[in-house]
Amino acid sequence: MQKQIDIKSLTKEQLKNEILELGEKSFRSDQIYEWIHKKLVLDFDEMTNIKKEFREKCKERFILTNLEAVDVQTSKIDGTKKYLFQLADGNLVESVWMKYKHGNSVCISSQVGCRMGCRFCASTLDGLERNLTPSEMLDQIYKITRLTGERVSNVVVMGTGEPLDNFQNLLVFIQLLTDEYGLHISQRNVTVSTCGIVPKMKELADKKLQITLALSLHGATDEKRRRLMPVAERYTIEQLMEACRYYFEKTGRRITFEYSMVAGINDTSEDAGEIIALAKPLNCHINLIPVNPVAERNFKQPDISFVEGFKNKLEKNRINVTIRREMGRDIDGACGQLRRRHKEEKEETQC
Ligand code: SAH
User: Fold this and answer.
1) Alpha helix segments (H runs only) across 92-160
2) Distance (Å, rounded) from C-alpha 213 to C-alpha 222?
3) Is 284 a known active-site residue?
4) What are the pocket residues of ligand 1 if the criterion is a CB atom closer than 6 Å to any ligand atom?
5) Which of 68, 99, 144, 290 has its CB surrounded by the most CB atoms within 10 Å?
6) Backbone angles phi and psi of 131, in degrees to 5
7) What is the mean pLDDT of residues 64-83?
8) Beta strand spans in 30-122 (E)
9) Segment 285-312, tens digit of pLDDT
C-alpha cells in the first residue's frame, strides 16, 4: 500500500491536485479544505457534504492528524493554560493558551526538542528530536480552539524549537493558518521568534510576509551573547543587525528584540547602554524577560528593581520597551519544563 498522505499539511493547490487525481471535481477540494481548516474536523466521516464512497477513498489515501492532550494546567492567577500534547509517534510537545483583553493568544512549539543550545533554556537540554510538520503545528492551535471553544486571534511561534531551523514547514504552516478559507488569522497577529539564524532571517524577509519577527538578542555584544547562546559563534551582532534592517526594508515590519535578563550577566547599566546603541538606529521594540530559572541551570532573575531601572534607562532614550508580563506564573515556568517533567517522571517509573 502507498504511504498515506498527511492531508492537513498540504497547501490548497497540492490538495486540489490530489483530489483531482482521485477522480473528483476541484470544488470538492475546497469543501474538504474548509472541513479541515475551518470546521476543524478530526474524521472524514464528519464531512457530511462529501459522498460516503469518496470519503472512503480519502480515508485510504490520506491521514488526518490529531493530538492527544496528556496534561493541562490552568493558572489560578490569570487563566493561562499549558497543554502537553502527544503526537502520533508518542513524542510530546507543549503549547500555551493566554487570554488577553485584545483576544486569545497561543504559543506553539515548532520542533520536538531543539539543537540551538541556549544555556538558560530547558527545551534544548536533550537536543533536537525532530521537526514538526505543518499539520502538527496547526493541530496545537486547532486542538486548543476545540478544547476552549474560543477563537484564537494571535499565534506566537515561541515554544520549544527554533522555527527558522524548520523553515519550509514553517512557511506552509503560516500559509495555512492565515488562509481566508481556514482560521484566517491575520499575518500581523503571527509572531515568529528566532535565536538569529541570519540567512534564514533574510530568506523570510524575501517572502514579504506581514508577520512580526522577534529576535532573541539577550546580549548586546558578541562576547555577552556567546556566553548565553552558541548560535552567536556563527553570526555576529553586526550581521544580525544587518538582517534586521533588511527585514524592515522588505516588509515594513518593526522588529521585536527579546532580552532575557540574567542576574550578573546582562543586567547592568552598561548593558542597557549597549542595547540603546544597537536599538536606536532601528525601528524596533524591546521585550525584557526576567529569566525563568531552569532547575538544570544556575541562572537567576535580576531583582525587579534592576529590571525596572533597565527599562527606565531605555525609555529615557526613547526606545520602545516593555517588560514581559509573566503569564501563568503558578504553573510550570519556562517553555520546555512541562515536557521535561513528564519525561523524567516516565523514566523514573520505568527504572
Ligand atoms: N528558538 C526561538 C524560539 C523559542 S524560545 C528563539 O530562540 O527565539 C522563545 C523565547 O524564550 C526566546 O527568546 C528564548 O531565548 C526565551 N527563553 C527560553 N528559555 C527561557 C528562560 N528559561 N527564561 C527566559 N526566557 C527564556
Assistant:
1) 134-148
2) 21
3) no
4) 116, 118, 120-121, 158, 162, 193-195, 216, 258, 260, 289, 291-292, 294, 334-335
5) 144
6) -75, 155
7) 94
8) 62-63, 68-74, 81-86, 92-100, 103-107, 111-113
9) 999 999 988 877 889 999 999 999 999 9
> Which of 258, 287, 294, 307 for a ligand 1 pocket mutation test, highest count of atoms within 8 Å of Cβ?
258
Q: How far apart are CA 275 and CA 320, in angstroms?
A: 12
Residue minimizing CA distance to atom 12 of ligand 1: 216
Query: Which residues have a Cβ under 8 Å from the Cβ of 150 and sit 6 or more positions away?
Result: 104
Kindly report the protein residue whose alpha carbon is nearest to atom 10 of ligand 1.
Answer: 158
Q: What is the DSSP string of 32-75?
A: HHHHHHTS--SSGGG-TTS-HHHHHHHHHHEE----EEEEEEE-
Distance, CA of 50 to CA of 60 (rounded, Å): 15
Residue 163 phi, psi (nearest 5): -55, -35
Contact by Cβ (8 Å): 333, 291 = no
Residue 7 · residue 62 · CB < 8 Å: yes
- Which three cell numbers, joined as nine digits, stand for 100? 488577553
Length of the chain: 351
- The string of pLDDT tens digits covering residues 19-72 is 999 999 999 999 999 999 999 999 999 999 999 999 999 999 999 999 999 999
Residues 91-126 pLDDT 10s: 999 999 999 888 999 999 999 999 999 999 999 999
The reply to whether 94 belongs to the active site is yes
Q: What is the CA radius of gyration of the chain?
A: 21
Catalytic residue among 18, 24, 94, 136, which? 94
